[in-house]
Amino acid sequence: MIPFFILYGITGVVPLIAALYLLLRRGNAFAPEITPPVRLRRWAASFFVGIALGHVWWYLFYFYSRDTHSAWYLVVVGLDSITLLTTIGGTLLAMLQDRRRSVWPVLAAMIPVLALVGLEILYPDRPFMTMVTIYLLSLYVLFSVYMVFAVRRYGQWLNDNYADLENKKVWLSQLVSLVCLLMFILYAFVDVDTFQIYVLHVIELLLFCLLLWRVETLPLLAETSVKEEACTASEAETSPATPLANQKGGETLGYIDLAQIERLLAERCVDTQLYLQHDLTLQQLAQAVGTNRSYLSQYFSRQGITYNIYINNLRINHFISRYQEMVAANQPVVAQQLSSESGYRSYSTFSLAFKQRMSQTVSAWMNKSSE
Description:
Elements lengths: L1 H23 L13 H27 L6 H25 L8 H6 L1 H12 L5 H34 L9 H16 L8 H22 L5 H17 L13 E2 L2 E2 H13 L11 H8 L3 H10 L4 H22 L6 H7 L5 H12 L3 H9 L1
Antiparallel strand pairs: 1-2
């Protein structure tokens, strides 16, 4: 059992160190140029603290009791369920920055667990713990389904407001966190003396490290979006008829002439090559055009595209134009460098956008063009 307790101690100390790092260190050791959301850091820290505490009280239970029919066991199960499910729920919700989601429904969902554990202590001959297991599994499934739809909505929000999506998407983060949560449920069905418990602890350790890295590489977006929405609302209230207003003929969108927005986009975004600016947001483009974010968003919606698609199309067109110019001038072309000059921080992001737009890879297109 000595190897198990060593591994058990490591998986208890690592999350404690991670929690202290998130709570006490102001700088970002993983990505110094990124400022992650404070709310996310705090929830992730609370999750890691819950894990560390769980290791403590399960160790005490194993050392002093080991009786799975005792009240002590029921109390430990209740504490584990409430702390871990609540904190992992808060961490997952804090990753979605399109709006602030309350955690109180997760807290409310823990009330039946407390009630069933209390009934099991009072009436140990009844199958209340079986009901707890079924309830927690059902809660896990419902929360997972909710997160699928919430993440999809978050992804649409990103496409509508941001040109650069590097490190902003959260599918991997959600998957890793949900796997962590599922592992804690699996612990209830695995014997300590089996090989599977060692495998679970190793996977748990890897997932904790990956989750910590993901929390620190997720840039802050929520506060920016709140400011943008406030700015949009203020503009709409104080200046309902902007310089783009045209109510006499032509297709209009609210107070905005679509053709006029298109002309201003050409003048102030395309001609000036504003689209090459890294991390250009919808709000920044709206200010450059002379309208507000809401009107511009509606304009892209009328065109059947998102803001992200609009900017990516301009950047890919720029890449193609520059490539053709360089080939005509017999200059050497390095796709990675040219993609960076076209507004992309990441070549992988450019490659994906290029393939979606051109239906072929960058290298295939370049080979075909050279022929």
